[in-house]
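User: Hey, quick favor. My workstation is busy. Could you predict this chain's structure for me?
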Amino acid sequence: MSGMNQIKQLIFLERMKFISAFFLLFLIHHAFIFSQETITIDAGTDDGSFKNYTGFIHGETNIESHSATLNMLLSLKPNFWRNSDWFETQELATDLSVQTTMVISDFYANFKGGYSNAKPWLNWTEYESFVATLVNNYAANGQSPDFWDVWNEPNDPYYWSGNLSQLIECFKRTRQVLDAINPAIKMVGPSLNSYDGAGIEYILDSLAASGVTMDAVSWHEFGLPDSLAVHINDFNNRKLLNPTWNNPEIHINEYSPQQTNQIPAYRLGWFYHLEQNDVDWANTACWDNNDGSTVWSNCLVGLNGLFWHDEQSPLPVFWLNLAYAKMLTGKRIFCTHSDAKTLALSSKTDSLSELKILVGRFYSIDNGSYLPTDIGKDSSNVTITVNNYPYLTNGTVPLIIQKIPKGDMNFQNSPLAGPLTHYSGSVSVTAGVITITIPNFQDGDVYLIYLNSTDILGQMATSHEDKLAVFPNPSSSSITLLTENRIYEPVIFINAVGETVKETVITSDEMTIDLTNLPAGIYYIKTRWQIIQFVKN
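Assistant: No problem, here it is.
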């Protein structure tokens, strides 16, 4: 959350970012050992239905003024929303049939003039009256949040300056107020800023001793997606040993650190591990975005990094979220993989004889730095093997592969009109086995693989007309950009691995660009509203 972004970043980096000089040299010298990674998908079975972990945090009151954005939001099939504004976001969430959590401490801190003044133990009567008024006002407005979150990140002195006994008393008194209004109202907590199994156990035991239980237990995940399983397993083990807790749900009510929040493969990693660990509730965290010229808080604008600051243009991770949403009607399939951070989440729909696969690699922890064990994994050849393909034993099936590049930080925070087409054709099926190899698979990228599917992601319509054209294409020396009403618009040239290789500004309706300094290959010309692929030969 915005008040403690820098502290959270330091915590994250201190956990992740120490490197032995000897180990660094050793791994660079032996980088060839990371040259091949494998993923295996058993399409003859499935892992049940998707849970859907598309969740937001905080208010977004301007979306309804942009009909195209609202339609894009609906296409993501959002499931959860955690916020703290007066009615507007709750009304929108209700209209979208989204489950909601309201954060009592945010309201109370606003009432007191900031978290530094939010000290309910100084006047419990005032605090209890405030909570009662808040909940009753929502009810009077015809709104019923699914959960009330007592206090955000109370293990952080920015948000809670009292002691642990006072915090437990706050939970007790909040429960008493809710019970007086309606015992069926659900309460969630403690919403710690990181997992602390022993601390959570102490809080729940103390509450249970007073006859108070949480309907859901919550904490935030600002580390790596694959650490989630360790925390979930630890909490479930504690829960089994403590039946007096009354089997609370598990809510990861903020996940994804700022350093990796806009990287497509990390979003995929979170979805994969949330699905695999059967969490009950999850919300993406919110941070600041920076496209190189503008900084904005995606807590307030752009719905947690999905849209640009115009609140209309989708950013690269939007397309990952949309691809995930389009898989939800099928049966999910997890993968086996040679490397823990190279994984695939699949969906099969028997009625359509369709298989969709999202493949990603997430190794860099902050757009460039790697853990000691991951040095050398900036790229790899990745082979995806689909076994027991259920719809054909021998022959060929249509295959389309799209790519959502990681690019650099400016690319991650700039509009992307749609995924880039990597391959369109067919693939052989031999004895029910399909093999697909993606060479030079860059860290952070995501590939969307469609087998016998017509539900292919395309460019979203926006209020901006696409009037940029390129010729000749392919070209060996130069290209001409044809445009209309785009004078002084910046243009970025991106190579096949997402790197910016050239930048310019449109100076006329017909502008020639010299390509002689670019090596042969596939490139993308990107404006704020359009991407065009061209080939340098």
